[in-house]
Amino acid sequence: MCGKLLRFMLLVHAFSRCGGASQESKFVRVSNAINVKYLEISRRSVMGLVSCAALCSDGCWSLKYEENGSGSKTCDLYNLRDTKYTQLKFVNVADLYKKVYPPANAFVLIEIGISWIKARDFCQSQGGNLAIANSTAKMERLERMHSRTDTPLWIGGVTQIPPENGTIGMCPKFQSGLGVGVTSCGEIWYFVCEYQL
Asked: Do residue 168 and residue 124 come from a single domain?
C-alpha cells in the first residue's frame, strides 16, 4: 500500500544548507519516457527512497530510485546545469520522480550574435525564455556566464520602449560590473535563455 502511494506523490522535508530551515520538496511519479534537456546525472548509494529524495536539492530536477535483489539501493540524481549552447544534451528518461516544487531552472549561454527580438524568439522556440535577473542568485549566475564572453548579454524583462512597428526600442541587457541596463534592441549580442522544467 505504501509503495503505491509513493508512485503518485512523494513529500520530503529536506533541510536547506543555511541554518537548518525546513523546505518541502514535492515529487510526482513519471512512468512514461520524457525528453529532458541539459542534464547531468550522478549516481549514489542510499539507505532508501526518502534519503534519495533528500539529496535532490538546488538544481536537481528529478530522481530515479532503484532496489536490486541483493539489497543494494541506488539513487540517480538528474541535475540541471548552467551551460553553453554547444554543450546541450537531450536525455530520454523514464520511471522517475519529477520535482514539481521548488522549480528547477537552467541558464544556457547562446553564443550566437543576434538582436533582442530574435534572441527572445529563439529561447521561446526551444521551450524557454530570455533569462530574467530578478534575484541575487540569478545575478550571480549571469556574472559567471558573462565571464565567458566580452560583450553584454541580452536578457529578459520589460522593454522600456517596446520594439514594435519598426521602432528600434530599448531592451534589457546584462554586463558584468554594470549589472542590468537597457540599450537599442537592434544591437547584435549573445544571450542567455532560462529553462524551467
From this structure: yes
